[in-house]
Specification:
There is one protein chain. By secondary structure, this protein is mostly helical. 52% of the residues lie in helices and 0% in strands. Helix 3 crosses helix 7. The model has no long low-confidence stretch (mean pLDDT 85).
Length: 122
């Protein structure tokens, strides 16, 4: 009985100590990478965002909802008239895109910077 009690205590102490560690919150839960759009051009950053998130419905020959984002000129039209930002930010009065999800805050920032910089192509 005495041996069993010592064994129980040993197991309990071992279990308690094995659960302790000295990691800090920054290591366990790193902050997401900062979004720094930097220089934004259509060919440099915007095209890849649009291609990854929009082309399945609005590019490459597919123009659902009569929205064609294929190529710089088409996308620039939607950027210039405010529809692009309204839809990707899910603003009231716009069809939220992409359907069933939302672009990351960083991708939205990149597109907005591209527009505020005058929609540069290269």
């Amino acid at each position: 009985m005495k041996k069993m009690k010592k064994y129980s205590i040993l197991v309990s102490v071992t279990a308690l100590l094995s659960g302790c560690y000295y990691d800090n919150a920054q290591d366990l839960y790193p902050a997401p990478a900062a979004c720094d759009p930097g220089t934004v051009t259509y060919t440099g950053k915007v095209f890849s965002i649009i291609q990854s998130n929009c082309y399945s419905c609005h590019g490459g020959g597919s123009v659902l909802g009569n929205v064609n984002l294929d190529g710089y000129a088409n996308l620039k039209t939607y950027a210039d008239n405010g529809i692009l930002v309204g839809t990707i930010e899910h603003q009231t009065g716009f069809s939220p895109m992409p359907q069933g999800g939302k672009l990351s805050d960083c991708d939205i920032s990149v597109i907005k910077k591209w527009i505020s910089d005058g929609t540069p192509n290269n």
